[in-house]
């Protein structure tokens, strides 16, 4: 398809696309937009950075302009930052309509959100937890008339990961009309296809890009094999090289825990790198502020947990570094997809210890891509090894002296209360379970010892018998 005007959209929307540099539709847009305009449910699986957002925003705006009312469309997404990004696409593309959109996410003021919801916005973009809270606690808005339900990063919303959305989704689904169009999008839909089909019941149009590989062709995927203890030195060396050679590059470093994220940020700042962090234990306003500073290139390095691995669209990101090898190939696909977006180039570098080699094999098998080794001057890395490790230790001590672990414990308790559980009772239950586990272990050990003793006795007996028969 040559031009965005052949998608079946009104002239004002085509013009709006062109103003924003969307001239030629991407394959996911070319295939899904007409099907959605026909009134079909849709499941779109296309690579990271391939324009899935516009593939659902455009047909919704088209239909909304034909019959404008609120609340017309609900978009659900797993993270707060992503909700703001999607709302922005609606706002920008829907400007000529005077679109009213409302963002409903955790960590922000609930009263003003409730007010906005009761003002009948055309589009609501939400994370499931906070929207379910609003539905449970107020009857000042209705979603009984919505025409579109969209699940962006649909597989993440339906899987039972560290944040489980299933209960909240049940609450939300219970207030939505059965007659609606349901649109599901992600770069990794296929694992959760069955669950998705139970949400998009209306004979969904399924579209998946035909490409052999599951990661982007313009992405140069690399790995560095390193002992655990040298990992940070490799990281500092890599960043130093990028800073020396490219003053316009932005880098995202993914790591596994909030604590590690904090420590790495402190460590890189000690080396005078413009680094800033993003993880779920930060206050929400701080999270938004940090992301905004990174997007504006005030800080060139973002250290994040997987909270930033999906959907975020930041064109300046040239490099993604995986400080830990992701345990699941799909997490790898989303993480490295933060670079090489919309036809741009990009590099991803995964730090791999000897214990992670099997994970790399899984990633290669699933993505149908072979990772190449990233050439590096080991001598240069060894020169800074001691200094880096001492700095890291200093940062760890500094963080331990703050109340980081205490805050983590308070957050855990808050989460349990929100889930309707008693934190003290849960702690007791956990301690009892641990006690039972320990007793079982002891019991097993005793049995093993007994078996060993019996075996020993039998062997001894046999030897004695043999000696006896030899003598006689
Ligand atoms: N037809 C188009 N032509 C040029 N650029 C486009 C087109 N459609 C979308 N884009 C741009 O491509 C970028 C990536 O789009 P988008 O964020 O929708 O990707 P995605 O497929 O949702 O990726 P992810 O899987 O990471 O969420 C955006 O900056 C968007 O403005
Ligand atoms: Mg997206």
Folded structure, characterized:
The chain has 17 helices and 14 strands. Strand 10 (275-278), helix 12 and strand 11 (301-304) form a beta-alpha-beta unit. It has a seven-stranded parallel β-sheet with strand order 3-4-2-5-6-1-7, with helices on both faces. The protein has a seven-stranded parallel β-sheet with strand order 10-11-9-12-13-8-14, sandwiched between helices. Helix 6 (128-137) packs across helix 8 (166-174) and helix 13 crosses helix 14 (357-367). The longest helix is centred in the C-terminal third of the chain and has 49 residues, at 423-471. The protein is of the alpha/beta class and 472 residues long. The radius of gyration is 27 Å and the shape is globular. The protein has three domains: 4-208, P-loop containing nucleotide triphosphate hydrolases (Rossmann fold, 3-Layer(aba) Sandwich); 219-412, P-loop containing nucleotide triphosphate hydrolases (Rossmann fold); 427-455. The protein binds adenosine-5'-triphosphate (ATP) and magnesium ion. The site of adenosine-5'-triphosphate has 20 residues, from helix 3. Belongs to the DEAD box helicase family. DDX49/DBP8 subfamily.
Tell me the number of strands.
14
What is the general shape? Answer: globular
CATH-derived architecture of the largest domain: 3-Layer(aba) Sandwich
Strand order of the largest sheet: 3-4-2-5-6-1-7
Beta strand %: 5-15%
Major pleated sheet: 7 strands, parallel
User: What integer value in Å does the Rg equal?
Assistant: 27 Å
Structural class: alpha/beta
Percent of residues in helices = 40-55%
What gap, in angstroms, lies between the N and C termini? 98 Å
Please tell me the overall pLDDT: 92
Q: What small ligands are held by the chains?
A: adenosine-5'-triphosphate, magnesium ion
CATH class of the largest domain: Alpha Beta
Number of contiguous helices: 17
CATH superfamily of the largest domain: P-loop containing nucleotide triphosphate hydrolases
Low-confidence stretches: none
For the record, the count of structural domains works out to: 3
What is the fold named in CATH at topology level of the largest domain?
Answer: Rossmann fold
